Amino acid sequence: MNARASWLLIREFAQRYRGPHGAGRIVTLTSDHVVHNLPYGASKGALDRITLAAAGELGHLGITANAVNPGPTDTGWIPDAHREAFAQHNPLGRIGTPRDCASLVAFLCGPEGGWVNGQVLVSNGGAA
Predict the structure, then answer these.
(1) What is the rounded distance in angstroms from the CA atom of residue 105 to the CA atom of residue 68?
(2) Active-site residue among 40, 85, 114, 118?
(3) 17 is annotated as an active-site residue
(4) Which three-class secondary structure state does DSSP give residue 29?
(5) Tens digits of residue pLDDT in 26-80
(6) What's the whole-number mean pLDDT along residues 102-108?
C-alpha cells in the first residue's frame, strides 16, 4: 500500500499535471519506525526511493517531490505511557502534532518551498 499506491498516484499526477511550471508539488509521508515492523519499514523505505526518483524524473515538468518523516505524531494512537516516554526523549519535551507536520507540508507546497526537491525531511523536534 505505502509503495504501490503512492507510486500509482505520483505517476497519474505527473501524467495529468498542467499547472504552471515550477508549481507542481508531491509530498509523501514516511517513517523510520522499522524495529519489530519490517514490512511497514520496508514499504516506507521504498516510498522514500520512489519520491526521490520522482524528484529527478519530474523536474522538467516543474514538479518537486519530497518526503516528510514527522517522527512520533500524536494522532490519538499513542498510549499515555508511550506519549510521556517519547516526550522525555525529545529535546523539546513533547511529541509532534498533526499541525507540526502540516506546517512543513504547507511550506513545501507553497512558493517558498519551490527550491526544495528530492529530500527526505526529518521533522521530529530533534529526537535522536
Answers:
(1) 8
(2) 40
(3) no
(4) strand
(5) 999 999 887 888 999 999 999 999 999 999 999 999 999 999 999 989 999 889 8
(6) 98
Q: Strands 120-122 and 63-69: what pairing?
A: parallel
Taking only the tens place, the pLDDT of each residue in 82-103 is 999 999 999 999 999 999 999 9
Grid cell at residue 2: 505505502
Q: What is the DSSP string of 40-98?
A: HHHHHHHHHHHHHHHHHHHGGGTEEEEEEE--SB-SS-S-HHHHHHHHHTSTTSS-B-H
Residues 6+ apart with CB under 8 A from 13: 24, 26, 63
